[in-house]
Amino acid sequence: MRYSDLDLIVANEVAAYEHPWTKRIFIDCLRTGYQCWVLANKRQIVAHGVMSLAVSECHLLTLCVHPDYQGCGYGRKLFKLLLDRAHKLDAIDCFLEVRSTNDAAIGLYRSLGFTQVRERKNYYPTTKGREDALIMWRSLPLS
User: Fold this and answer.
1) d(CA 139, CA 56)
2) 3-139 under CATH 3.40.630.30, yes or no
3) Taking phi first (over 0 means left), then psi (-120 to 50 degrees means alpha), and beta for anything else, what does residue 92 get?
4) For residue 57, how many other CB atoms are within 10 A of its CB?
5) What range(s) does the N-acetyltransferase domain occupy (predicted)?
């Protein structure tokens, strides 16, 4: 991910989410040195992800696939890249939060060996209030 990608990334966020990340959030992630990656086809950036790493632990902060390309394997490919990078940088555990109603993402994470370890009540904003988050975990590397 580069600063020059951010307008396209934010457009993907707006297309995919009711409460998208802002350009400022991505700028802060790049400046902080988080693992910030994009996946593109010949026409556009189709997915992006951000992961933080600290003291043998990584945390998936966002993984977004443009709605036109969801279900095509791009999320899995990008997430596996992020997990591989994290392992190469000495991470041994990975955590993430996911909306309790996001069945597609939960299915992806479970298929990669993640298990639910906790729940955060009222974590995510919605148009009608708040939604719970599932906290998921797995050890690295991927097998």
Assistant:
1) 10
2) yes
3) alpha
4) 16
5) 1-141
Summarize pLDDT for 39-71 with one digit per residue, the tens: 999 889 999 999 999 999 999 999 999 999 999
CA distance 36 to 48: 7
**Residue 6 φ then ψ, to 5°:** -65, -35
List the alpha helices (DSSP H) in 33-102.
74-88
**Catalytically active residues, by annotation:** 97, 109
Degrees to nearest 5, angle at CA 133 with 127 and 138: 150
Pairing, β 57-65 against β 93-99: parallel
- Domain positions in the chain are 3-139
Nearest Cα neighbor of 112 from 88, 134, 136, 85 is 136
Q: Report which of 35, 17, 16 is spatially closest to residue 87, judged by C-alpha positions.
A: 35
- 116 in Cβ contact with 135 (< 8 Å): yes
The pLDDT tens digits for 6-25 are: 999 999 999 999 999 999 99
Which pTM was predicted? 0.94
Measured CA to CA, the distance from residue 116 to residue 112 in angstroms comes to: 12
- Amino acid letter for position 108: L
